[in-house]
Design brief:
By secondary structure, the protein is mostly beta strands. The chain is 6% helix and 56% strand. The chain is globular.
């Protein structure tokens, strides 16, 4: 069995300058030619999801940005954001800085 990995994320509404509460985030593991769901939850009041455990290897975080912006009456160019990354033993933190027409990410700590 592989050493466990933990995964967390933090979504910030860069246009409003505050955490993005309520963005549905799904952790997917790449296995051969398929993506297998591992966990899914909305971001909390601080824009965070945490405590997910998985195994090492290629993964994807999928953010349902279209529904989040629609609930706020805001048009967006990106209906969802997928961030591919490789989980390693230990902790992976994948932040998302979000606005209606742009996003960025980096390897967090």
């Amino acid at each position: 069995m592989s050493d466990p990995c933990t995964v967390s994320s933090h979504v910030l509404d860069a246009a409003a300058g505050r955490p993005a509460e309520g963005v549905l985030v799904t952790l997917l593991k790449q296995e051969a030619d398929a993506l297998t769901p591992v966990a899914s939850a909305p971001t909390d009041a601080d824009g965070r999801v945490a405590g997910w455990t998985t195994t090492p290897g290629p993964h994807r975080l999928r953010f349902d940005t279209g529904a989040w912006f629609a609930a706020r009456g805001t048009a967006t160019f990106y209906p969802e954001v997928d961030i591919s990354f490789t989980a390693a033993p230990g902790h992976s933190h994948v932040p998302l800085l979000l606005s209606p027409f742009a996003y960025s990410t980096y390897r967090g700590s």
